[in-house]
Amino acid sequence: MLQGVIENNANYQPGLSIDCVIFGFHHNQLKVLLLKTPFESKWSLPGGFVPIDEDIDTAAVTVLNVRTGMEGIFLRQFATFGKVKRNDKHFNDTVLDYLKIPQQEVKWFTQRFITIGYYALVDFLKAVPQKGNHQEIIEWIDHKEMPELILDHKEILDKALETLRAELNLMPIGYNLLPEKFTIPELQKLYETILDRKLDRRNFLRKITNIGILNKLDEKKSNVAHKAPNLYTFDKEKYQEVLKNGLNQGW
Amino acid sequence: MLQGVIENNANYQPGLSIDCVIFGFHHNQLKVLLLKTPFESKWSLPGGFVPIDEDIDTAAVTVLNVRTGMEGIFLRQFATFGKVKRNDKHFNDTVLDYLKIPQQEVKWFTQRFITIGYYALVDFLKAVPQKGNHQEIIEWIDHKEMPELILDHKEILDKALETLRAELNLMPIGYNLLPEKFTIPELQKLYETILDRKLDRRNFLRKITNIGILNKLDEKKSNVAHKAPNLYTFDKEKYQEVLKNGLNQGW
Q: Does the beta carbon of B56 lie under 8 angstroms from any beta carbon of chain A?
């Protein structure tokens, strides 16, 4: 992808990039997909540029698709970051050298960039993280154990998490993060992990049931010694409806 | 402002603009500040460009300040709009002629623009709408009686209103939209106008009181025949605290 930009940056929107915060849920951890290039000690969010003939949302879908191998991912724009000096020291000689950017193209890469942040929720087990090249490292990292990030990527990640937390009050969640069949305790654990606090069991059950997006199955979770909990699935139609209209539980 | 951009567009971020949805509340109407130039039948949101040495948020503050004469306005970025063809037919010959854009600068103005949307809540009575030049019209228009808007400004306005409605569940509102002293029915009317539906009086009173941001005054509303309602103010410190931490009433 980068090669195309270097060879013909006139085909890309100047001074504009996309950064994606890709969340996955696994072993009761909220994980984030991060990249590292060999010439840097810091990690970065997966990102890309915007082809002049593509909508910004399409460019974001491409980044996700390229990095996870998945399509039809839940993806939401959450904020645009445009402090004056956010990237002014990023493309130093080491980076330019590693990226093999020819002298005449350096100006394009070192210009001021504004970046549009998207966050995605993906099924951890279905995603296949893809490197950009064999020297790169790509990994799921627990959001509580974040390494140092380049540029303002920490700020972008924090804002994505803040948005995700706020949106728990506005929309249902879980469809993209849990296996198809799940128990209420598993769903509650997802909420607790995102919110980073314990929730009352009965309150949670009442609220989540009231939304009307769960189908109780005639099955119990197996491999559980006794008092096996019921399994549920999301009612996809109702889930989409609530996603569209909002939870509207406030006023 | 535009003159500066025409004369030296190298000082501005290429292909990037700011558009502001400025809301005011008056006579139980939610109004939006709109502009019209003499050569067009459609109205537009106030907007501007981003100086290369200014943060995007600062550029948005400038637009607000220039258009309302106000400072310290509540202002929030809500979305960035970047469909490929959003402005490709906007700068036609009539517009270029009216704006007196020299031939050699036309390319800069007709390039693809991505625009960052901000919404603001202002005190209708304190704002002094400012024209860009004497031919321009600037007016507060009821959001229920919107005229046709240029480009994707209708989409931007709709998204701003959708965001404002959603954020009623996440943060307090009213500080920038109501007079300093107000009654609970007046505050309820503000919520009803934004949400475009009736709310239950007792429920509203309970919920708004629970947030803990209101100070009841030792005063009643004057000019009311009998059963004069109590006057309230916002407890600014608690209001700011809740604004920062969120209502957190969901889970």
A: yes
Q: What CATH number corresponds to the domain at position A226?
A: 1.10.10.10
**Residue B121 CA neighbour count, 13 Å, CB half:** 22
User: Per-residue pLDDT for A55 more than 90?
Assistant: yes
Is residue A250 predicted with pLDDT exceeding 80?
A: no
B153 in the same domain as B223: no
Whether residue B82 is found in the same domain as residue B204: no
Do both B69 and B137 map to the same domain? yes
* pLDDT confidence band for A89 (50 / 70 / 90): confident
Domain containing residue B195: 184-245
Q: What would the pLDDT profile of B84-97 be if each residue is shown by its tens digit?
A: 999 988 888 888 88
Question: How many residues belong to chain B?
Answer: 251
A200 and A116: one domain?
no
How close A148 gets to chain B, by Cα (Å)? 24
Instruction: Look at chain A and report how many structural domains it folds into.
Output: 2
Q: Are A171 and A67 in contact (CB under 8 A)?
A: no
Nearest residue on chain A to B207, alpha-carbon basis: A251
Asked if residue B1 has pLDDT above 70, the reply is: no
Tokens 């013909």 correspond to A8
> A175 lies in a domain?
no
> CB-based contact (8 Å) between A14 and chain B?
yes
CB contact under 8 A, B13 and A112: yes
Pinpoint the alpha helices (H) of chain A: 2-7, 56-68, 93-98, 106-110, 153-167, 184-195, 201-211, 236-245
> Hey, which bits of B54-156 come out as E strands?
74-81, 114-122, 137-142
Contact assessment for residue A247 and residue A238, using Cβ atoms and an 8 Å cutoff: no
pLDDT in tens, B156-190: 999 999 999 888 888 888 887 888 899 999 999 99
What ipTM describes this predicted complex?
0.90
Residue A142 domain-assigned?
Answer: yes
pLDDT at residue B248, as a whole number: 62
- Contact yes or no for B56 and A114 at CB 8 A: yes
